[in-house]
Structure formats: C-alpha cells, structure tokens
Specification:
By secondary structure, the chain is mostly helical. It has one domain (about 1-85). About 55% of the residues lie in helices and about 0% in strands. It has five helices and no strands. It has helices at about 1-20, 35-45, 55-65, 70-75, 75-85. The protein is flat and about 35 Å long.
Length: about 90
C-alpha cells in the first residue's frame, strides 16, 4: 500500500509539474486530445476512494476542466453514482 501511495504521489507530481504546469489547459497544451480523455479516466479513478488532489493544483484544475466538458456528466453518470456510494467508506488515500 505504501509503495503504491508513494508512486502515485510521484506520478501526480509529474502530471502536475511537467505535463500540465501552470500554463497548459490540457495534457498536450492548449487543445484537448485523446490523451486527456484517457488520462482523465485513469486519474478520476482516485475519486472512488475520495482522493484529494489539492496538493496538485494543476491536476485539480485539469480534472475540473474535464468534468466541465459537455459529455462528461452523461458518460460518467454510473461512475459518479458509484463514487457517491463510497462516500462514507474509509480508504487509504494518496
């Protein structure tokens, strides 16, 4: 568990500092690409255990931008319901 948490922190730091940084709206710069949709699917899995991405502000901003996309609500409807069902559960988090 500790190893996974450490590696997750490292990779979230890389995502935050090197791919997104303070200037990039999306992973490959200013335009959304398939990489953003794939990366969002992987990163949003942290929401199942209610990860707090505040330590990585660029990641949190990017996640918010992806959630604001017109199709996200419909595509993630079942996933969001699953996330809501785990709200009171205790998890080890990043």
């Amino acid at each position: 568990m500790k190893w996974g948490q450490e590696k997750s922190r490292i990779w979230l730091g890389v995502l935050n500092d090197h791919f997104l940084g303070p200037k990039n709206a999306f992973l490959c710069g200013g335009d959304i690409s398939i990489v953003d949709y794939f990366g969002f699917a992987l990163t949003s899995a942290g929401e199942l255990i209610h990860c707090d991405f505040a330590q990585w502000p660029n990641v949190a901003r990017w996640i918010a931008a992806m959630k604001a996309r017109p199709s996200t609500k419909a595509v993630y409807e079942v996933f969001d319901g699953f996330v809501a069902s785990t709200k009171e559960a205790a998890f080890e988090r990043v």
